[in-house]
Amino acid sequence: MVVVAGLSGESYDVDAEPFYAAGSRSVQYLCRDPRGQQRLFKQFRAPLTSPTEIEWARQAMLFGRQTVLAAEAAGGSTGNAAEAINWPIDLVVQDGTPPGVVLPLIPMDYLQPDGRPRTLDALWATPGQVQAYFRAGLAIRLCDIVRVFEDRQLIHGDLSPKNVLWHGAAPLAYVIDTAGLRPVDAAYDRYQDRYDLAVLLYRILFLDPGVAAVPGAPWQPAVGYPPDLDPRVRALFDRAFGNGGFGPDARPSALEWGDALRATYLTPDGANYVPESLAVLDRHAGQRPASAPALPTVALTAPVPSPTGWSQPQPQVAYSGAPQGNSPNTALKVILGVLLVVLVIAIAVGAVVLSGKDSKPTASPTTPPTTTTTAPPTTTTAAFDKSTLNQQATDKTPFTADALLPSTFTDSKGVVYNRTSSGAKDCVSQNMSDNVKTALQNNKCQQMMTGVYLNPDQTILVSIEVFAFPSNTEADTTYTGLKGQDQTWDVWCPTQGVGSSVCQANLKTMFAATYSSWGRQQYRYLYESYALYINLTQDSSLEPNVDAPAHTVIQVVGPDNYWKTR
Question: Which one in 12, 472, 510, 528 has a CA-CA gap of 20 to 30 Å to 92?
């Protein structure tokens, strides 16, 4: 047995004999982490030497580790699409280069009885056994998984049938072989994943066994299209395969595919499949229609965390179509009980100035003047060593909204605020000022958790950002380095419903509104808040009403929110 050390600080006991050695690029060994959890050590035959590629691998590992370990701590998968990816969870370092990665084992549900992965090839190899509702649900789930990559501006690079596994009893997918992950801007073909996704969706929906393509020519559908296929779906296939003169940049995103497939195959409330649309697939495949099961209603999960630190800042993506809050259409439902990830917050711009630790920002040229006071320290009764929260290697706080953001808080005026939206994003967005972007990047900001709170009468919106760094050193350097500078941070709103109008307003109107903003650094985290009236009122006499929640929220967010109950 050999012991190898990972960048996370953990060591792994690796079996002497290979578990799988047939690959041309790597040899795989079973191993165990310090907790006795069985993992897979994938040792590259040609170790990475490029500093850029090493950094890409490190960033993927950071996010993968957060995602996988949080799910395991929760006792299993939460249904989050990010958990359906075989992320690297550690890099093994040797002589300054990573000769391999540590991966979680593939879940048993995605293996055949003989232990081999159940790849998509087996789906269309037994067409009579896979009903239309199952294929529609599987296609939607795959879109959600690929959207995880897109949301993080990542390219998988090889979304082929051999790298997509499917559950034998439910329409669920699992993506493997993530060794080639890289930022979109660094990919040879930034639209390759979109093309590969369209091919997989076509073959899943229409049970196309695939045909050998002419050398050098793009893959084309072999079994044609149902004449009565929903025109929204057909239009996306035309764009994906270049029919009608469309170029590669017109290929639909996973978000577009997911929206179109849901609209076609699910009822508006997401609770059931649409029989008429499934019948189209049945007829095309020559199958006898089968009754589709009802879809149970479940709560939405929060968006998955996003890694940061890629070679270039990535633009923030704006999303739409995700109902929020307590509106009549509060949520999409689940494919056979599986939580489908939707994004619940959109972005606008807010000018916020960080002037001192636990202090209210000073005025920027575009915003009204504010005063400076000192905020009391957060208190907690958690019986554990708080110093562990200063380092990523020892901080066991899950990077989730529930762990970092309280569901409710009461400000100093006794007003209760309830969390209505939340989600994880990249640290850097295109709307931030250059000094903020530079500070976050230079200090290796890893992820940002965002949240929106509303008061009971839904007149005041409170936006909060929680930034995570490798250690308290980087967090403090970021905070103190920006102190006293004019800075532009982001304000977050629901995409629809109450509060969405704030982020839809023009900047002049938004900046003129009465607001309050605060900043704070604690442990390896940095907090930024912003509060204002939803109607963007300009009444300085109301400033105490927004100052109270903006100040309070930065005292109650962060890892203490998670550990105080444990």
Answer: 472
Which uninterrupted H or E stretch holds 350?
Answer: strand 345-351
pTM: 0.55
The answer to whether 422 touches 449, Cβ cutoff 8 Å, is yes
Alpha carbon 373 to its chain centroid, in Å, reads 36
pLDDT digits (tens, 9 = 90+) for 384-435: 788 999 998 888 888 888 889 999 999 999 999 999 988 888 888 777 888 9
First to last CA, the chain: 37
**What is the distance between the alpha carbons of residues 292 and 128, in angstroms, rounded to a whole number?**
15
Closest CA to 335 of 391, 297, 302: 297
Single-letter residue type at 217: A
- Residue 22's pLDDT band (cuts 50, 70, 90): low
Q: Give the whole-angstrom CA distance, residue 469 versus residue 559.
A: 13
Do residues 302 and 344 make contact, with C-beta atoms less than 8 angstroms apart? Answer: yes
How much helix, strand and coil, in percent to the nearest 5, is found in the chain? 30, 20, 50
> What pLDDT sits at residue 346?
33
Look at the alpha carbons of 247, 250, 253, 256 in this order and tell me if their dihedral is positive or negative. negative
* Number of other residues whose CB lies within 10 A of the CB of residue 53: 14
Q: At what angle do helices 192-206 and 132-151 cross, to 10 degrees?
A: 170
Give the list of residues 6+ apart from residue 474 with CB closer than 8 angstroms, or none.
443, 444, 445, 524
Beta strand extents in 117-273 (DSSP E only): 154-155, 164-166, 173-175, 182-183
Q: Please give the pLDDT value at position 249.
A: 87
Helix (H) or strand (E) holding 237: helix 231-240
Neighbour-count burial of 237, counting CB atoms closer than 10 A to its CB (0-12 exposed, 13-18 middle, 19+ buried):
buried
Query: What is the sign, positive or negative, of the torsion defined by CA atoms of 145, 146, 149, 150?
Result: negative
Q: Which of 3-12, 40-49, 57-66, 285-294 has the lowest mean pLDDT?
A: 285-294
Mean pLDDT of 240-257: 88
What is the rounded distance in angstroms from the CA atom of residue 284 to the CA atom of residue 28?
Answer: 41
* pLDDT at residue 560 tops 80: yes
Cβ-proximal residues to 312 (8 Å cutoff; 6+ apart), any chain: 183, 185
Which of 43, 3, 40, 45 shows the shortest CA–CA distance to 25? 45
3-state DSSP call for residue 118?
Answer: coil
Question: What residue spans of 286-417 are helical by DSSP H?
Answer: 401-404
Distance CA(563)–CA(565), nearest Å, equals: 5
- Strand-pairing partners, residue 462, are 453, 531
Percent of the chain with pLDDT over 70: 78
Name, in order, each residue with C-beta under 8 angstroms of 341's C-beta and a sequence gap of 6 or more: 80, 81, 82, 144, 147, 148, 301, 303, 304
